[in-house]
Amino acid sequence: MDSSVSQPLSPNAKYHFKNEYDDYTENNAKPHIENHTVSATTKITSKLIKKWESTLDEVENWTSTDSTVYTGTAGVGLLFFRKAPNDTQNLRNIRKKYLQLEQLKNRRITFLCGDAGPLSLAAVISYKLEDKKIFDFCIRKLMAFVKVVKSTEGELPNEYLYGRAGFLFALLYVNKHVSPPPFAESVIRSIVSAILFSGQKTAKNLKMDKDWPLMFEWHSSKYLGAAHGLSGIIYLLLQARQYLTEEELTTIIKPTIASLSKTRFPTGNFPSSIGAGKDKYVQWCHGAPGFLYMYCEAYRAFGDTHYLYAAEKCADVIWFRGIVKKGYSLCHGVAGNAYCFLEMFQTTKHEAMRPTVWKVVYADVPTQKLLTSEVTQVNNDNGSFFFKPSAYQGTCRATLLSGYGSENVHPSIFEFRR
């Protein structure tokens, strides 16, 4: 994307295909910039629209005992919710077929991998349907988790997939879509406080607090990526910034981002954890794609352009190394990387005359290629290593990329952004 940046290919190029598309220049981007969109009649977009429609048909009757957003039926429900969020029949169908409230196990508490995901979506849908009984049931169930999540005793992690940050997102998600918001400021603040306390305590116990105001461990590793690590936790705290004090933002969040920035490899990518010396992964869960969201949110929060420049460097890495060989998925596949360009566009589109806007409009065209023949071939060669219809491990949310160009569908990063 940045013509001044040479291709930062890692010694582990076996993890990704080479991007054969020309980098951005004013001349080769001009046809797309003038239209400000990708025409629904172009060959690549037509193929993706067909894939979008066929995926909807495929998943409509999918059944699974997995009720989560990450790999289960709630993720399919989220897809249909994004497609038609105000269609009454669609909402009823989602709640009946995909949310499986009766199968929830009261075990995991996060939006992606636990009960909080289907409960949050069911709460929002029930609010839209004016079904007070089920809405109240969902809110009560979510509130029942608060005591455990806000406690700093025990072994509950803080990361996004299985920990406090994932539960925090669930509360923020419901509060965004429901009026008046059902979760009080004090409730959300209690979760934020638990995350901050845990991160400060871990940094101190590890004798890292001089450079790292916050540090977290998951399975004895100090992960940095979006799924299990520090950048994902910081992103969620930035989304909840109205519940943090100015002092916390200044003395905890900003310095932690600064320390994260110092871990960047010379290629522009980031390690998966502290001490991980190999520059391997360019995917949402580990590497530059997850960091991109943190930097974009930091730019929104603080207005400092150096965060935006840091996000652009992440986008450059994704441009060159983002056509990964792991399949379609959002978590560690090409779809998660393609969404990064939409995030950059959403972040920069209000900046008058900012060249990045046009770079990302241009980038939107080739990034749709991420969902076509090359990746399909990898999937066919290596078998069914992904959960085919699911939101994070399969094709379900990947094809939502095609929907935004042809229908009234505006995807955010797999609900990572509220």
UniProtKB/TrEMBL annotation:
Membrane spanning residue stretches: none
GO CC entries: plasma membrane
GO biological process entries: carbohydrate metabolic process; peptide modification
Signal peptide positions on this chain: none
UniProt keyword terms in alphabetical order: Metal-binding, Zinc
Gene3D superfamilies: 1.50.10.10
Keyword Zinc in annotation: yes
UniProt-recorded Gene Ontology molecular function terms: metal ion binding
Binding sites annotated in the UniProt record for Zn(2+): C285, C331, H332
Annotated family: Belongs to the LanC-like protein family.
PANTHER family: LANC-LIKE PROTEIN, LANC-LIKE PROTEIN 2
Protein name: LanC-like protein 1
Organism name: Ceutorhynchus assimilis
Taxonomic lineage: Eukaryota, Metazoa, Ecdysozoa, Arthropoda, Hexapoda
